[in-house]
Amino acid sequence: MSLDELESLKTNQRMEISNNQDLKDKIIIEGVKKYTCLATIRVHEFFDKNFSELALHPEVKKKLEILEYHLNYNLPIDKKV
Fold it and tell me: What is the domain count for the chain?
């Protein structure tokens, strides 16, 4: 597959996501925002592991793991996280 075909496939998938009614409240984070979100998640995980007074609730840890997975694989996430 050429680069142009991959770009058109990516664009078509995004159009399908934007046209789907179930996905109207979801977004795909890209670029600098994506790396900023991932860095923020890693900071929270670092503080959770290294400082007992800043421990995260297990449900929050699970949500951060899910969010990190979605960001890493460019899956749509809720606009209100």
Answer: 1
Residue-wise pLDDT tens digits, 9-67: 777 777 766 666 566 778 888 899 999 999 999 999 999 999 988 889 999 999 999 99
Helix (H, G, I), strand (E, B) or coil at 32: helix
* Nearest-angstrom CA–CA distance, 23 and 25: 5
Pick from 77, 71, 70: nearest CA to 36: 71
Helix (H) or strand (E) holding 19: helix 3-19
Domain that holds residue 13: 3-76
Q: Is residue 66 part of a domain?
A: yes
Answer whether residue 81 is part of any domain: no
Number of residues in the chain: 81
Query: What are 23's two structure tokens?
Result: 């996905």
- For Cα atoms 27, 78, 3, give the angle at the middle one, nearest 5 degrees: 30
